[in-house]
Amino acid sequence: MSVSVVVGAQWGDEAKGKVVDLLAKDARYVVRYAGGSNAGHTVCVNGATYKFHLIPSGILHPQATAVIADGVVMDLRAFVAEADALQVQGVDLSRLRIGLGVHLTMPYHRLLDELEESQLEGRIGTTKRGIGPTYADKAWRIGVRVADLLDRDRFAQRVWRVLQRRNPTIQRVYNATPINADALIAEFEPYAERVRPYACDVPHLLMDAAERGEPILLEGAQGTLLDLDYGTYPYVTSSHPVAAGACLGTGIAPNRLREIWGVAKAYTTRVGEGPFPTELTDETGDRIRNRGREYGTTTGRARRVGWLDLVALRYAARVNGFTALAVTLLDVLSGFDALKVCVAYRLDGTITRDFIADAPTLARCEPVYETLPGWREEIGDCRTLDELPPNARAYLQFIEQYVGAPIRLVSVGAGREQTIWV
Ligand code: GDP
Ligand code: IMO
Ligand code: MG
Fold it and tell me: Which atom in ligand 2 lies closest to the alpha carbon of residue 221?
C-alpha cells in the first residue's frame, strides 16, 4: 500500500467512509487531511452503524493509528460529542493522534457561518459548521491552533486577538451579540486536557512512517467538485479535498503517493446550493433518493440527486490522477428499465466533454445523455462481477472506458461485506 489516498470524485457523500474502512484493514495509519465536522462518513459493520465527522473512519481496525492531520479544522465541542458516542459504541480511541497545527473551529466561527447563511443573498447552503470562517482566519493568520490550546496564556492571547477583529463584525454587520472572550477561554480549559493525550507533531510522525515504508491511508472528506480551487466556486467548501490537498494537509511529499482512489456513486448527489447539470427534480429523482436514503449524515438535509455525470467524473479523474475507482451504491439503480449517463455538455450550441467549473457557466450547460439498459434484479448479495446482471456489468464498463481509470471496487450495499473486489 505504501501511501494511498481516498478522494471523493463528486460533490461529497460518495461512501468514502465505507471505502476507507475497507482499505484500512492493511493500514498502519489512517489520516484525515482536510475539512472538519462538515464531513459525515458512515461505516456499517455487523449491523452496527458508526458515524464519523472528525475521527478517521479507519479507527475500527485495531492495528491502525487514526490521525487528524494539520490540514483539518477541528470543532472541540463536536469532537468531544463524537468521541463520547464512539466510546459508548466500544471504539478504542487510545490510537488517536491530533496534529499540533490543527486549527480550531471556535463558537464564533459557527456563529459567523450561521449568520452569513441566514442572509438570502449569496447563500452557499453550507453545513453551518463554521468551516469557511475557520479557514478564513487561518489564511488571515489570526487562527487558533491545537498548540495554542495546550498553552493557557497563549490560548487566551490568541482568543482575545481574534475576537477584537471578529466581534465588531458580529455586532455591526449582523446585529448579533458579541462573544465574551473570558467566558470562552474558561469554557475551553477542560478541552485542553481532553486533547492533550492525543496531540503530537503529525508531519514528523507521518514522514517517519512513510520513510519506513509503513502503509498509510489518507482519508479525503467532501469531494473534488467542492474543492476551493477546482470545484464550482463559490458553491464549494473552504479546503482542498483533492489528492494534492492530502500532501498539503499531512506533510507527506507528493512523490510518496502510490495509489489514488476515486470514490464515485453510480449516480450523482449534491447537498446545498450550486449548479448540478444532471439533477432530477421529478419522480425518478425521488425514487433514487428513497432507494439510496439520500439524507445527509451531518445535517439530515435531503440530498439533491441526478444521473451519473461522466463529464464531471472524468474531470475528477484528471485533477486527482485516479489510479483506481470505487463505484458505490450501484444497488440503488436496480429496477430501472433504462439509465442515463451524461457524456457531454451542450453550451451555446457547442458540445464539450470538458467539465466547466465556473458556476454561472455550468448552470447554463445542458447534459447530453447516452441511455444504457437497466436491470431488474436486486444485487445486494452479489460478491463477484460475474454474479452481477450483464447490464450492470456493462454500465460499469461504460464508466471505466469513459473515465479512463480502472474500477477496482464496487459497492452493492452499506455493509462492509456488500463489496465486490475487482
Ligand atoms: P461519505 O461522506 O462519502 O463517507 O458518505 P456518507 O456516509 O455521507 O453517505 C453514504 C451513505 O451510503 C451512507 O449512509 C452509507 O452507509 C451508505 N452506503 C455506502 N455504500 C453503499 C452502497 O453500496 N449501497 C447503499 N445502498 N448504501 C451505501
Ligand atoms: P462528506 O465528507 C456533502 C457542502 C455543503 C455546501 C458546501 C459548503 O460527508 O462527503 P461547508 O459547510 O463545507 O462550508 O459547506 O459543501 N459539503 C458537503 N456535501 N458531503 C460533505 O462531506 C460535505 N461537506 C461540505 O453542503 O454545499
Ligand atoms: Mg458524508
Answer: 2
Structural domains for the chain: 3-99+201-261 (3.40.440.10), 103-195 (1.10.300.10), 265-421 (3.90.170.10)
Reply yes or no on whether the pLDDT at 298 is more than 80: no
332: nearest Cα among 380, 385, 388, 397: 380
The sign of the CA dihedral 84, 86, 89, 92 is negative
Whole-angstrom CA distances from 337 to 21, 71, 305, 397 are 33, 44, 18, 18
Is 240 one of the catalytic residues?
no
Question: Which one from 21, 26, 41, 53 is the annotated catalytic residue?
Answer: 41
Nearest ligand for residue 379 CA: 1
Residue type present at position 84: D
Catalytic site residue 13? yes
How high is the mean pLDDT of the chain? 97
d(C-alpha 342, C-alpha 334), whole Å: 19
Return the residue whose CA atom lies nearest to atom 23 of ligand 2: 222
Using an 8 Å Cβ cutoff, are 237 and 135 in contact? no
Q: How far is the CA of 12 from the centre of ligand 2 (A)?
A: 7
Q: Is 239 in the pocket of ligand 2 (CB under 6 A)?
A: no
For residue 122, what pLDDT band results from cuts at 50, 70 and 90? Answer: confident
Q: pTM of the full predicted structure? A: 0.97
Neighbours of ion ligand 3 (CB under 5 A): 13, 40, 297
Local confidence band at 328 (pLDDT 50, 70, 90 cut-offs): very high
Grid cell listed for 142: 489570526
Cα 162 to ligand 2 centroid, rounded to whole Å: 25
> So what's the pLDDT on residue 299?
80
Q: Report pLDDT for 1.
A: 57
Distance CA 258, CA 2 (A): 7
